[in-house]
């Protein structure tokens, strides 16, 4: 205790607190830099990441011999030829045909038609052992994310089902799903499975989506996609067994579609690239191309997509089939749920990861930097002594609620009348508010309080996103950071600077620029449609968070950057307080 | 000025009743959240009790209802939901009115009388708690009634109200101790009346409950033995999830002692500031009770405006504000991660309930420090003098 007392006296003697308060803008900047560097420089460095390991011993990937080999190839080819023929008929007829094949070897089938009228065929292979309260899903969308016909994937799923059926080892039901696409149709089936379907097979533990476009027999390597919607990830064990099995069969693994030529690299930059690619996939999940595993987010289902790449290569389609076979054998071994410890991770390579405690400081530092910026606007000006219930605070809070209401209306309006061009254009115009409204003046304390509330609000949003959706918290924090550098527009130079900062930190302009820079799929205005359709069809919150979390803060800062007139505080309570102090 | 106070009370009534009418589904949503509803306060279990009572089933043998029998009878007499909403709104408006009346008991106070009432009305925690129809509202009403009547030296009402509060949720009975210092001449009388009223309530409950004492365990037993292990913002449920069976009785005893432990010391030390001692004890119960809700926390915060002369001494006000904001934002998120998504675990939510406890305790510590400082300065704030608290 004496030590702490000494420390406190020392801090007061040195006048550390006033100095810290004076340097708040610098501290805020430093915090943001630390946050960004933490993820991009520190984590990919040797010694910061760990090698992955299977945390649940029962999984035992590739411990049993895989039997899906050349003997099944003929059956698979037969189904594939038939599936190719079915390309020309309508979905309903096609599903009836496949349903008949499945029923031949004892699969119970049913079709689900969603609100848009798209059909999903699914079948349940009941477990010969166990009580049938748990299930594993094998899904093959008829058309994959690239709109290619998933001929290999569907044929493989049917022949795997036939193969599984001959085996007495299953203690969990196996559900086969053939949806029209990997996007909204699959999602609506998953939702219906948990709410309204009659034919069900217990709670789904895991889901594997097979994506093998084309009718080619051979392929080169395997891509694994794992990022779910709203920042959800499958248990790391699920990804680990998939990677382990694939590499055990001799194939190369590419996480999140890393190009083939980069697969052999193992240096700082390749790790950084894989890491940032994972963050990008998490942040933009739903808005980008959807691979199928996203559809299972939100129901405690560990789901991944396996995708075969390359038209020719050393591996045949049965090798690809052995991956789901071994994954199903592994998951089948599970007696409990997947282990608790690995739901939050970032992968730097198929076999390297960092867990939450290591990467979370990056987003925390960004959130703290916004809090510091808020304190700076509260304390570092002549209006800091205004009392808690002064008019400026109440006005600031009111302005925040108005900004929230406007943002909410914009979010709703845009979901119905989809005109993102108009949105970007108006954001562009509003960013020039400091120059456009040259002659309008607001009172300086309002400007400070507005900014303080804006930064505090954004900081709280970022904090609440930290654990739920780290990638989104990090991206919003980074992209919105220029906002904190806005100052009161006193000179014309400052005015121009504020305009540029506002332009950079506007949610729509900034994600538009950034999206076009980092992702070739989200060209032009396309990404807004992606976000909105993800919100409407997939239940992905990203668009809503951008509108409700980021936009109000930006609106407040834009408002505060109108030219200000400084006033002396004439708050009555303030004068009274001063008098009160004097009399004492 | 009278009109301003009336406006506050009407605003309270209107906002509670209006929100219940405009968002009828909000009540169920809030009642499902662990922050605003616990097994002993939730409206769902109260409705269950009403259903059982109306159909002549034994109310307390199912282990679902943990409300006092008289409350169940009152609710079953009211019947339709608009009427119950109005009852909750009226109870809350009455609390707001009593807060205003309390301010008038401090003639030297600098804040206008309507301010504490208005702050109570706009406090979102209290608003949501009232909309969720948590029975905390009635306990709080009994507590404010007791405090106000004790300040106005109406012994009978004060003692009866404390008995009522204890009858509804057990722990407020401890507030009898600080009431003694508010009514120093009539300790015996207060005890006596309180005992009579309490036994009257218990006996009539016994009669209503078909001559069966089993309601005692379902109501007070559950509160004091923590036997419903359901996550809440309190400090203790986690222990009973994690502990070995054989240690549990010991910890039950310790946690109950813990609730009692600080009541008498607070009342003795701040004997000369009985109102302040009462609020401290209330804070202590909020911090250590077995099934707290955010409604309790919001109620405690409504008493802070009364201590306006102490504001200068508060050292953690920014920290406690930030803590409260973060608890309110993060606790539903962490609960969602744990229970809905399954990616988090119970530690996530318990960590947040620890942060909540920290928030409440920073408020308490700040209050205690401020009062001790003003005593040191002989009643006139001397903010320039710096003292270390350690």
What report would you give on this structure?
The complex is a heterodimer of chains A (584) and B (390). Chain A has 21 helices and 15 strands. By secondary structure, chain A is of the alpha/beta class. Chain A folds into 2 domains: 281 residues, Aminopeptidase, CATH 3.40.630; 197 residues, no CATH class. Chain B has 390 residues and is mainly alpha-helical. Chain B has one domain. Chain B starts with a helix and ends in a 14-residue tail after the last helix. The model of chain B has no long low-confidence stretch (mean pLDDT 91). Classes of the chains: A alpha/beta (584), B mainly alpha (390).
CATH superfamily of the largest domain in chain A: Zn peptidases
Our count of helices of chain A gives 21
User: Fraction of residues of chain B in helices?
Assistant: 55-70%
Level of helix content of chain A? 40-55%
Instruction: Please give the alpha-carbon distance between the first and last residues of chain A.
Output: 33 Å
Q: Per DSSP, what share of the residues of chain B sits in E-state strands of 2 or more residues?
A: under 5%
Largest sheet of chain A: 8 strands, mixed
**Whole-number count of domains of chain A:** 2
- Name the assembly state: heterodimer
Q: Strand tally of chain B, please? A: 0
Name the poorly predicted regions of chain B.
none
What structural category do the secondary elements of chain B indicate?
A: mainly alpha
**Helix and strand element order of chain B:** HHHHHHHHHHHHHHHHHHH
Q: Give the class-level CATH name of the largest domain in chain A.
A: Alpha Beta
Count structural domains of chain B: 1
Structure class of chain A: alpha/beta
Approximate strand percentage of chain A: 5-15%
Task: Choose one word for the global shape of chain A.
Answer: elongated
Keywords (chain B): Endoplasmic reticulum, GPI-anchor biosynthesis, Membrane, Transmembrane, Transmembrane helix
Family (chain B): Belongs to the PIGU family.
Pathway (chain B): Glycolipid biosynthesis; glycosylphosphatidylinositol-anchor biosynthesis
Organism (chain B): Lachancea fermentati (Zygosaccharomyces fermentati)
């Amino acid at each position: 205790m004496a030590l702490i007392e000494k420390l406190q006296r020392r801090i007061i003697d040195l006048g550390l607190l006033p100095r810290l308060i004076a340097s708040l803008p610098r501290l805020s900047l430093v915090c943001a830099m630390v946050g960004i560097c933490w993820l991009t420089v520190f984590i990919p460095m040797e010694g910061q990441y760990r090698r992955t390991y299977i945390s649940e011993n029962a999984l035992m990937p590739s411990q049993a011999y895989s039997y899906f080999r050349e003997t099944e190839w003929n059956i698979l080819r037969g189904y594939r030829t038939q599936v190719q023929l079915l390309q020309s008929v309508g979905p309903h007829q096609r599903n009836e045909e496949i349903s008949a094949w499945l029923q031949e070897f004892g699969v119970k089938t049913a079709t689900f038609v969603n609100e848009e009228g798209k059909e999903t065929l699914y079948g349940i292979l009941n477990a010969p052992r166990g009580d049938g309260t748990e299930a594993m899903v094998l899904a093959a969308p008829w058309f994959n994310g690239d709109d290619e016909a998933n001929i290999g994937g569907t044929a493989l799923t049917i022949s795997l089902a036939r193969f599984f059926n001959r085996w007495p080892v299953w203690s969990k039901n196996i559900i086969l799903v053939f949806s029209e696409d990997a996007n909204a149709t699959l999602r609506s089936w998953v939702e219906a499975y948990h709410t309204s379907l009659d034919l069900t097979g217990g709670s789904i533990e895991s889901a594997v989506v097979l994506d093998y476009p084309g009718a080619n027999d051979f392929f080169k390597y395997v891509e694994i996609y794992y990022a779910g919607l709203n920042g959800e990830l499958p248990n790391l064990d699920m990804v680990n067994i998939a990677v382990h099995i694939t590499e055990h069969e001799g194939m190369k693994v590419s996480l999140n579609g890393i190009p083939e030529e980069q697969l052999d690299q193992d240096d700082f930059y390749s790790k950084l690239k894989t890491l940032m690619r994972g963050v990008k996939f998490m942040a933009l999940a739903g808005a980008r191309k959807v691979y199928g595993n996203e559809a299972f987010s939100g129901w405690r289902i560990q789901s991944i997509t396996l995708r075969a790449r390359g038209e020719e290569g050393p591996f045949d389609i049965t090798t690809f089939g052995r991956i789901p076979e071994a994954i199903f054998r592994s998951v089948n071994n599970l007696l409990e749920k997947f282990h608790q410890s690995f739901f939050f991770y970032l992968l730097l390579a198929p076999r390297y990861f960092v867990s939450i405690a290591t990467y979370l400081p990056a987003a925390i530092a960004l959130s703290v930097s916004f809090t510091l910026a808020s304190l700076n606007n509260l304390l570092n000006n002549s209006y800091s002594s205004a009392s808690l219930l002064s008019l400026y605070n109440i006005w600031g809070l009111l302005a925040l609620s108005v900004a929230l209401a406007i943002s909410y209306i914009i979010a709703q309006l845009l979901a119905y009348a989809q005109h993102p061009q108009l949105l970007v254009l108006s954001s562009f115009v509003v960013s020039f508010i400091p120059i456009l409204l040259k002659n309008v003046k607001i009172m300086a304390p309002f400007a400070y309080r507005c900014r303080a509330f804006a930064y505090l609000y954004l900081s709280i949003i970022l904090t609440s996103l930290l654990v739920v959706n780290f990638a989104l918290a990090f991206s919003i924090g980074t992209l919105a950071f220029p906002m904190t550098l806005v100052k009161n527009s006193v000179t014309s130079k400052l005015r121009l600077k504020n305009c540029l900062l506002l332009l950079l930190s506007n949610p729509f302009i900034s994600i538009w620029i950034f999206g076009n820079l980092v992702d070739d799929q989200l060209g032009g205005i396309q990404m807004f449609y992606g976000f909105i359709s993800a919100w409407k069809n997939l239940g992905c919150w990203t668009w809503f968070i951008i509108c409700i979390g980021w936009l109000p803060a930006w609106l407040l800062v834009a408002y505060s950057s109108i030219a200000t007139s400084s006033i002396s505080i004439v708050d009555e309570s303030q004068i009274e307080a001063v008098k009160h102090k004097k009399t004492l | 000025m009278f009109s301003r106070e009336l406006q506050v009370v009407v605003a309270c009534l209107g906002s509670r009743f209006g929100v219940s009418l405009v968002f009828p589904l909000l009540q169920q949503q809030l009642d499902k959240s662990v922050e605003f509803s616990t097994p002993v306060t939730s409206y769902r279990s109260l409705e269950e009790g009403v259903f059982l009572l109306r159909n002549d089933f034994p109310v307390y043998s199912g282990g679902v209802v943990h409300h006092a029998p008289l409350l169940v009878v009152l609710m079953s007499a009211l019947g339709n939901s608009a009427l119950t909403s109005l009852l909750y709104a009226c109870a809350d408006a009455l609390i707001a009115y009593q807060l205003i009346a309390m301010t008038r008991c401090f003639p030297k106070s600098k804040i206008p009388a309507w301010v504490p009432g208005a702050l109570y009305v706009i406090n979102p925690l209290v608003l949501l708690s009232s909309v969720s129809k948590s029975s905390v509202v009635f306990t709080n009403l009994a507590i404010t009634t007791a405090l106000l009547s004790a300040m106005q030296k109406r012994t009978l009402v004060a003692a009866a109200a404390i008995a009522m509060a204890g009858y509804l949720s057990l722990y407020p009975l401890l507030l009898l101790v600080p009431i003694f210092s508010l009514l120093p001449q009539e300790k015996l009388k207060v005890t006596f009346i309180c005992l009579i009223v309490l036994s009257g309530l218990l006996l009539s409950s016994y009669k209503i409950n078909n001559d069966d004492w089993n309601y005692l365990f379902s109501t007070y037993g559950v509160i004091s033995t923590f036997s419903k292990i359901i996550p809440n913002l309190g400090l203790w449920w986690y222990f009973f999830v994690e502990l070995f069976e054989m240690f549990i009785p010991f910890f039950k005893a310790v946690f109950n002692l813990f609730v009692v432990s600080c009541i008498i010391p607070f009342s003795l030390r701040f004997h000369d500031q009985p109102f302040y001692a009462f609020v401290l004890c209330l804070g202590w119960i909020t911090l250590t009770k077995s099934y707290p809700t955010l409604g309790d926390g919001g109620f405690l915060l409504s008493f802070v405006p009364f201590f306006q002369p102490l504001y200068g001494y508060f050292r953690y006000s920014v920290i406690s504000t930030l803590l409260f904001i973060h608890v309110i934002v993060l606790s539903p998120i962490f609960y969602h991660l744990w229970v809905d998504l399954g990616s988090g675990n119970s530690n996530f939510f318990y960590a947040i309930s620890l942060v909540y406890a920290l928030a409440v305790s920073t408020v308490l510590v700040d209050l205690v420090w401020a009062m001790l400082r003003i005593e040191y300065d002989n009643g006139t704030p001397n903010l320039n003098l710096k003292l270390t608290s350690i």
